[in-house]
Amino acid sequence: MDDRFNTIAGWTLFGGIVALGLSSLSAHYFLADKEHRPETMGYAIEGVVEEGAEGGAAAELPLANLLAAGDVAKGEAVFAKCKACHTAEQGGANGIGPNLYGIVGKPVGKHAAGFAYSADLAAKGGNWDFATLNEWLKNPKAFAAGTKMSFAGLPKGEDRANVILYLNSLGSNLPLPAPEAVPAAGAAPAAVALVGDAAKGEAIFAKCKACHTVDQGGANGIGPNLFGVYGEPVAGDRGGYAFSDALKGKGGNWDDATLDAWLAGPAKFAQGTKMTFAGISDAQQRADVIAYLKSKK
């Protein structure tokens, strides 16, 4: 009985050791030399956003700004993962990939003497300037579909900029581009001027004729006559029309910006106004009406 128990216990222990060993071997196999995310994911994982996917990610700064704020030493550290295929010292031999000393500013696909570049890369043309290097480092296969380079790329703009700075320090030393002006975080985007269409504005204005006339010499009605109103003072003399105190207190003239704000929401523009119209929510339609009012002079 004891022998049988010992036999069972021994086989159980042996099975556990084998399972542990296989688990360790498989882990080493799947992790060895695989510090990068795969270029193509095997399957989607719910809740995980793929690198480079839009939505929720902060907008990347222009390359010139990233270069200005970059760090050569950090670029050298990122480049360590490239040393499996590339040398970077002057006179270094080509390996799986070409030697990269002095590459910045040199022709694409022709820099390293004796290296057999892919036909796709050799045919690209142009030079390895900052913008081209940035595009290449972001996704080599998107840059040249038939490239021999199997590296998936660097998704972070900061990493790419730092590597470019490091490569530029290796015998090229080209001057960096000037940083671009960018809006502060959270700032509203610059407004785009809309070009109004007077004919379309006249059609939209049809709904306003219940209260306003717009012909020269037209009588005031529920609202004032609007002929020649563009450029005149807000709540100025309109043939004796009695404007609300709220509108009379606004000041300024009926220019594009003031008319646009008024047409977008009269009650918001001057609380206490007599005008009951809710406003025109579409910015293009407001621009069209303003163009029409400009034409009535």
TrEMBL record:
Highest rank taxon of the organism: Bacteria
Transmembrane segments: 12-31
Name the record gives this protein: Cytochrome c
Matches recorded under Pfam families: Cytochrom_C (PF00034)
GO molecular function, one term: electron transfer activity
Species annotation: Novosphingobium taihuense
InterPro entries membership: Cyt_c-like_dom, Cyt_c-like_dom_sf, Cyt_c_1A/1B
This protein's record includes keyword Transcription: no
Domain called Cytochrome c: residue spans: 70-171, 196-297
